[in-house]
Amino acid sequence: MDTLSTPSVEETMYMGSEEEEDEETNGSEEEDKDDSQTDQSSVGKQQRPAWAPCFFYRAGKEVYNYVGQEIIIQEALDSYAGMIWPAGLALCHYLDTHREQINLVDKAVLEIGAGTGLVSVVAALLGGWVTATDLPEVLNNLRVNLCRNTRGHCRHTPQVATLSWGYDLERTYPSSVYRYDYVLAADVVYHHDFLDELLVTMKHFCKPGTTLIWANKVRFESDLTFTENFKEAFNTSLLAEDGEMKIFMATSREGEECFSDVMLEDPLRQKEGKEWKEIEDKDKKGKEKLVEQKSNEDDLNNHEKISYDELPEKTNMLEDERENEKEDNTECEEEENTVEVLTDEKAQPEDTDSSSEDITGQEIKKETALKENWIPSIGCRIAKDIYHYVGEDIVIYESIDSFGAMMWPAALALCSFLENNRHMVNLKGKEVLELGAGTGLVTIVASLLGASVTATDLPEILGNLRANVIRNTRNRCRHTPQVVALPWSYDLECTHPSSIYHYDYILAADVVYHHNFLDELLVTMKHFCKPGTTLIWANKVRFESDLTFTENFKEAFNTSLLAEDGEMKIFMATNRD
């Protein structure tokens, strides 16, 4: 059995008193300056506290154990690729426990959408010659994680390269040069606009002789459509399955019989001392290796499907955490139980009474061995961060499998602004609606400031949102905040008539990112931002679509810029009617 390891999560530290002391000192030193300089410094002092941080934040750090090594993964912010996704954990575990079926030693391996680099690290530790690829903005954190965890531990130094999925790959990555034994991909299918490009990219690199292994957790209907297209494009088999979590193996449909396995030539790697004689030797052994590879694939196809018993996901809060909070949270037990936990089907063994008489002792041992093969080599807790606003410690549990279940920087900026500008935005006793509440931090701060808040988001977000809100507002607030589902749409007058749903303030933080519902978001803002309502929207610009939305936002409302720090902006808007 593999040793369980618990990831260490960097918690936050608080700052604030030092800045106040600095401001007092600076104030005494500037007393002798002329009036104009004094006026400018006083304006600076009024603006600066609005952005002076009252927290120190580090992205989550996770510690895993695969291939007998401790692997430290530093997550990042501002990108979906900067966090660990459950299919990545599943694929790492499968590769670690099925080394005979998937032998990566000295094999050329390409990972598509490497993200934090965990899968690439494991593949490199298993002896693979790995090239980890992702978008340019992701590579820094990816490179750091790879270097930290593979230096001095691997046969081959893994490489990091930019790879944008697209149709012109034959020009940028010609098949005659870039050829791989294995192509790995984990949780690259989610709600984005590049599923066609992803499939084209998979087909480009998965040539005859290449094995593609794709791990995925189904979340949206688009996942199912992609899976059907994937099966049509490749010869596929299901290696493992546990509910919505699946690992597929795929090979090219074209030219399998005429393929000769040659030494892979990747300009990203340096072939130190490699001679062409080795290439000739491998050419001679190509047919023999192909026959062996096909035999291995047949074995995998006939292999019994294995379930991920007890495989932890970051959406699953460990039982000890729940026990520690049980006494404090008895009133909201139903709400907190909506957070995803290990299901009874996974926790209990399968009922085999009906067929137990026909199973021989040898078969029972084999079944037990298979189950032990899936004992997880990682103990995982969802990230916990502690913030300090309105004189209170706020404990936020992040979740996984959703962009709305992690902390985004505009939420932190908006919380800081609301706390430090109460004279400008007075929420005490006001009716407040938050759009896209996510983890609930903004809702919590608004509630602590005296508002009667309704936090809204998609139904799958509400479990973790409700737990965070209840945990941090019980017995602290004048009004108990509400949590309800609100999909952005055009028929809100039917579901949320303006005559009933009226608010003093609408809050929204980092609700604009790369998704397909920007038009619906603007319609939703306009629906709730009626005369007498003030809309406050905080956003960090990341994509060109953010700029387009901002222009449409300014056309739809009377707007003013409350605060700005580089790409971080906070707008105030009112109805034009």
Automatic annotation (TrEMBL):
GO molecular function, a single term: methyltransferase activity
Biased composition (Basic and acidic residues): 273-329
Key words of the record: Methyltransferase, S-adenosyl-L-methionine, Transferase
Compositional bias per record (Acidic residues), positions renumbered to this chain: 17-34
A Pfam family this chain is assigned to: Methyltransf_16
Region named Disordered: 1-46, 273-363
InterPro entries linked: Methyltransf_16 (IPR019410), SAM-dependent_MTases_sf (IPR029063)
PANTHER family the UniProt entry points to: HEPATOCELLULAR CARCINOMA-ASSOCIATED ANTIGEN (PTHR14614), PROTEIN-LYSINE METHYLTRANSFERASE METTL21C (PTHR14614:SF13)
Entry protein name: Uncharacterized LOC102202928
The organism's taxonomic lineage, starting at the top: Eukaryota, Metazoa, Chordata, Craniata, Vertebrata
Name of encoding gene: LOC102202928
